[in-house]
Amino acid sequence: MSIFQRYEEENQSLLRQITDKISQLKTYDDKSDQSSTINLTTGLLRQADDLLKQMDMEARDAGDREMKDKCRTYKKSLQSLKSDFESARASADRNMLLSGASGDRGRLLDVGSNLQRQNDTLQNARRVMADTEDVALEITEELGRNREKIQSARSKVLEVSGMTNTARRLVSSMSKRETQQKMMMYGMAFVLLGAIVVVVYYLEK
Prior knowledge:
Layout: H1 3-27, H2 31-62, H3 65-100, H4 105-204
Helix pairs in contact: 1-2, 1-3, 2-3, 3-4
Protein name: Vesicle transport v-SNARE N-terminal domain-containing protein
GO molecular function: SNAP receptor activity; SNARE binding
Keywords: Coiled coil, Membrane, Protein transport, Transmembrane, Transmembrane helix, Transport
């Protein structure tokens, strides 16, 4: 069994425990039980977050598309559980306020409404963060693909540069050879001219 598979089993176990704790939180009437369940569920959610980060790193290192898709699915499931937990927690807090207070019920209801609005704001913020993280992952993958293309283009440029240097050396060698041939022709012409001058000189004598 791979490391990712072990992480996956642990994650599924955590998600089941979180689901059970949220269900218990919705049915508890006792304050102390609710507080204990809230603290325990918060710890489980933190563990699940840390585990998903490890799974995400493992998927990136392996470069496995299927692993990355699973990580995204688990993140969405965890995000949904976080939203359910916040709703259950807000409802529990509201019930505790209503049951433990004596006085102006309208004020208590306003407090509960404010808590619900704050909870909705937090949920929206978490959804935006999750979507942003998915976009960031896609951008990272795209940058990785672009880097491979750039490296490939650089290799081709280096190859062309090497061919250019070889051609430059070849042209330089041909130029030197041409110069040598011209010098030899000039030398031979000079010798022939000298020979003609000598022959003409002796003929005139």
